[in-house]
Amino acid sequence: MNIEEALALVDKALKPERLNDLQELVFRESWEGKTYQEIGWSTGYDNDYIRLVGFQLWQALSDAFEEKVTKNNFRSILRQQKNLQLVQLVKTTEQEKVPFLELPQGPVSLDSPFYVERSPIEERCYQEILKPGALIRLRAASKMGKTSLQNRILAYAGDRGYRTVRFNFQQADETVHTRSINSTSGFSCSCFDFSSIADY
């Protein structure tokens, strides 16, 4: 710990009070190992007055840290206080954390920390979805994030004022698959019904 860190710790402990200029001077000189007499000589103050300022300084720190602080032990007390603050910070941080993060069992929300971005795939999808009549086919193994990516693509298009149709071939009934020789034509016929819906 250096002198500036020590002073920051003292300032925090004494809040809302602060060290006055002379107390800070005594603190800095004591940190350098100078005696009250040496501090008095270098500053032009009477030795007894410097001793009184030092006494008031150590008393204020004793009250703040709730243990006896003297010119001889203030460095070790400050080190202990810094360590205590670090331990408290770690405890506070651990308490603020979510106690248990459950792994997702399906599509993750748009703001989920579990979503893994796939560059440049996403950028290409975002560009393609804005083209007229866009059709994007997402194909990957199970549990790879296809639905989460789809949700992001549709949200991206929706944010830009586009109306979207979500169509899942696995949920389509048999008539959609047999309506035409070409499944894309059957898909187009099914989408036509949805796209003619008026805005509300």
Can you put this structure into words, describing what you see?
The chain is mostly helical. Helices cover 57% and strands 0% of the residues. The protein is built from nine helices and no strands. The radius of gyration is 35 Å and the shape is rod-shaped. The protein starts with a helix and ends in a 5-residue tail after the last helix. Mean pLDDT is 80; it is low at 189-200.
Main sheet attributes: strand count, strand direction, barrel closure? none
- Fraction of helical residues: 55-70%
The computed structural class is mainly alpha
What is the succession of H and E elements?
HHHHHHHHH
Overall morphology: rod-shaped
Radius of gyration, taken over Cα atoms and rounded to an integer in Å? 35 Å
Uncertain ranges: 189-200
The end-to-end span amounts to 65 Å
Write the layout of secondary structure elements.
Blueprint: H1 3-14, H2 21-31, H3 36-43, H4 47-65, H5 74-96, H6 121-129, H7 146-159, H8 174-178, H9 183-195
Helix pairs in contact: 2-4, 3-4, 6-7
Describe this protein with a few key phrases.
mainly alpha, 200 residues, disordered C terminus, single chain, 9 helices
What would you say about this model in short?
This protein has 200 residues and is mostly helical. The chain has helices at residues 3-14, 21-31, 36-43, 47-65, 74-96, 121-129, 146-159, 174-178, 183-195. 57% of the residues lie in helices and 0% in strands.
